Amino acid sequence: MKRNHFHYIFLLFFCSGWIPASAQEYLFPLNHDLNWRIAGALETDSNHFHTAMKPYRMEELNRIIGVDSLTRADLKDSHFNSTGFGRKLRKEHLLEVNEDDLHLTVDPIFNLDIGQELEPGRNVFTATRGLLVQAKAGERFYVYTGFYENQARYIKYVDHEVVTTGVVPGQGRVKFLSDEIVDFNSAFGGVGFTASKHFDFMLAQDKNFIGDGYRSLLLSDNSFNYPFLRITAKFWKIQYQVLYTLMQDLTGAYDYDEGFLRKYSVFHYLSIHVGKRERLTFGFFESVTWKNDSTRGFDFTYLNPVIFLRPTENSIGSPDNVLLGGTIKYRIHPRHIVYGQLLLDELVLDEVKAGNGWWGNKQAFQLGYKAFDLFGVSHLNLQTEFNFVRPFVYAHRSNQQNFAHYNQALAHPLGANFIESVNFLNYRWKNIFFQVHFNYAKAGLDSAGTNFGGDIFKDYETRSSEYGNYMFNGVETKITHIGAEVQYLVNPKTNLIVKAGFDQRDFSNQFENSQSQYVYLGISTALNNFYFDF
What's the pTM? Predict the structure, then answer.
């Protein structure tokens, strides 16, 4: 069988249309708000838990913390809550079956938001409807499947991004309807097998996240779902994960026989606890991305799950895109955590020392701090994070080799050539959650016809110069996001919440000075993250 036919075999596993909603019963959702509810409990000495690899497996979480007790709603013992309707609304799945070794649940999933962009009085909405089915057979097999159907009308800057890319951030391709309304949908799910307490296998179309921050500069959940095989091994103080993935490049023309262009990526991530109390954790990351074409399909050279990708890539003389990186987390105190990431796209020390702006100085880093129960106040949490990404990071000669999928970055939504400060303060009182946030970014955007390294979808060979490529070259732009949200937890089984909030975005450079103010309210089963703070 020819190697370039491998992707047909790979896709065969996904012909059922499964993708994930990150089922709470078997995988803990990637949703940031939900993860805050359990994050403090995970930071205890010597529990052997590795927090940087997400989504977490519920079985692993329940071995060290009481997930239900941390995420449950605070309910009174009232007559309504004891009725059939009250139980289904507040604390149970819509349908649940426990029969012999089979556990099956069925739930509606939805996101109904209405709001207004205050200037110029633009009415916006999101209407998402879907279904989530989860099942577990025995102690080792689990599966979940579902679908979303969406219509939406977004505020102006998000609408511009949708029109430009043809996709909703973090979600699927759109069909443009009348009155600036877009229609999009997806099916989702996965199947997993826990071989032992040391090995876990998962075949799905899902998102993954590596890191302890709000953003990840290594692999985030910013882009759309992608098919993957994930193998996780855990022993002693070490956890290792390998991902074999199939990505899509939507920038090329659509072929009615072949679809969009495809590319492959392999990711390795090794996490190690250090010391008797395990306060220090190091992680080592590497990835390789290569294009699928008529002469080359899946490269079995990269199939070995424990091989080093950079020397392998060099040994076969490939033109592939290899990224190396690392993570660090130190627990100053069970309530105070510092963390960071480092990414190396290219590194030539002589060029770095010269400080002359060589285009190939492609590095990125992250520094962050989390505080739980701030000032001794239970459930008052703080996070502050700084991200730095140099020009041309993640880009390559072809979009079939850049670090992107489905017209979206696999790491940070701003791409490259920027700095960013992200800050959150949140508090829980009974079933009510409050959060305020402030984001500030300074970026160098490309001007017409010139590649300054901010757009990862541009061929880096089109750069304007070999040297003099400094931070914020191009159109220096400042972006701020300020917002607040209040949520009321209705049902923890699907994180059903009622919410209301306000967001303001300011965007300014020499060509544009715009402001967007947005107020909204809604009801949602909030299981995923969708990033509109760009």
Answer: 0.91
